[in-house]
Amino acid sequence: MDRILVTGGTGYIGSHTVVELQQAGYKVVIIDNLSNSSRDVVDGIERITGVRPDFVEGDCTDMETLIKLFADYKDIKGIINFAASKAVGESVSKPILYYRNNLVTLLNLLELMDSNGVKGMVFSSSCTVYGEPDENPVTEKAPIKKATSPYGNTKQISEEIISDVINAGASFKSVILRYFNPVGAHPSAEIGELPNGVPQNLIPYLTQTAIGIRNELSVFGDDYDTPDGSCIRDYINVVDLAKAHVIAVERMLQDKSENKIEIFNLGTGQGVSVLELINVFEEATGVKVPHRIVGRRAGDIEKVWADPLYANEVLGWKATSTLADTMRSAWAWQKRLRERGIM
Ligand code: WQD
User: Fold this and answer.
1) Minimal CA–CA distance to 107: which of 157, 71, 147?
2) Residue 290, preceding peptide bond in cis (omega within 30° of 0)
3) Ligand 1 — pocket residues by CB below 6 A?
4) How far is the CA of 320 from the centre of ligand 1 (A)?
């Protein structure tokens, strides 16, 4: 089977995707600089699949590192590029770090693909490119709005770079996947979301509150134009999301599409509010989450959820996990971290 390079492969979505790639029979090599993840994740992947993925600790912004990687792994046929800084708030205070890390990583990889026989890149993008959508659910035809953060802007610029390089005559293809809100953990509880420091995202903060690490979850506003006043998102199970990447790789490597670039929204199609999600978690786990309504968080989108029909029909992919099961997986992971004394 072909070998796939997974950049950022010890990260949250990357590690779950490596599991699915291995279980689909692909050989994998991970490169990750461990700036926001741990080498232990490689052990977790091996415990799930029984196969230890090759792992290279390195920074994709360093061209020499990548040149050596491709010299060492001459059988790389596809790339899934997760390697990027991804905290919206941090990107506002550290724009140079975000533009350099996210864009130089991409440029280095694109520059090396054709000369190393790589047939395609699956790119990790985000629904952030749509900003506050004019209407929900959001299709791939929805207008791209001016980014509200350097993080979101790096995703928009990256999509344009990929398009320009392919339109300039590159031989490789690309599938761009725009994620909505990835949540949950692998059902084995061997891998999951492991944010450094105080979590920015809702679910890790919620599960850390549920287990007692945090005193109380702040709900950022209940005065939005939504049924219960709290923001609405499309929370997609991370394993469902990972499976879409395997389908995208197969689609590229088997030349299933005449288009050199394809873009897909990956979501469930269901909008869920913050308060609804708290209720789902509490009912699914039987664990109460102390929470309080506070003021809005700057930059928050009011409501955004996907129309996944295009991915359902063209990729033949659909999110199948229930939100209750997804919340149970997030809780099982948080308890595992406690058992291991990690958190
Ligand atoms: C979800 C909802 C908050 C924390 C961002 C990026 C996106 C992707 C996922 C990287 C919002 C509310 C949150 C808390 C809360 N990142 N919330 N209390 O902002 O939708 O998306 O992260 O790929 O690109 O934009 O995710 O989990 O931060 O927030 O009330 O302590 O939960 O207001 O409505 P977001 P989030």
Assistant:
1) 157
2) no
3) 86, 88, 126, 128, 181, 200-202, 205, 217-220, 231, 233, 274, 297, 300
4) 22
327, with CB counted inside 10 A (0-12, 13-18, 19+), is buried
> Helix %, strand %, coil % for the chain, to 5?
40, 20, 40
Residue 343, pLDDT score? 84
19 near 25, Cβ under 8 Å?
no
Which residues partner with 173 through β-bridges?
120
Say how many C-beta atoms besides its own lie within 10 A of residue 23's C-beta: 15
Q: Is the pTM of this model over 0.85?
A: yes
pLDDT tens readout for residues 74-119: 999 999 999 999 988 889 999 999 999 999 999 999 999 999 999 9
pLDDT at residue number 195: 82
Alpha carbon separation from 213 to 182, 220, 305, 328 (Å, rounded): 22, 19, 30, 18
pLDDT digits (tens, 9 = 90+) for 261-295: 999 999 999 999 999 999 999 999 999 999 999 99
* Distance from residue 83's CA to the centre of ligand 1 (Å): 20
In the predicted structure, residue 299 carries a pLDDT above the cut 90 = no
202 Cα to the center of ligand 1, angstroms = 6
**Is 26 annotated in the active site?**
no
In the chain, the amino acid numbered 212 is G
In the chain, the percentage of residues whose pLDDT exceeds 90 is 96
Mutating to test ligand 1, I would choose from 181, 200, 234, 292 the residue with most ligand atoms within 8 A of its C-beta, which is: 181
Could you tell me the two tokens for 340? 């291991």
Q: Which helix or strand (DSSP H or E) is residue 158 part of? A: helix 150-167
Separation of first and last alpha carbons in the chain:
38
**Residue 180 C-alpha to ligand 1 middle, in angstroms?**
10
Mean pLDDT of 175-182: 98
d(CA 136, CA 271): 9
What's the whole-number mean pLDDT along residues 183-197? 95
- Of the residues 151, 205, 224, 235, only one is catalytic, namely 151
- Which residue from 113, 128, 125 is spatially nearest to 168, judged by alpha carbons? 113
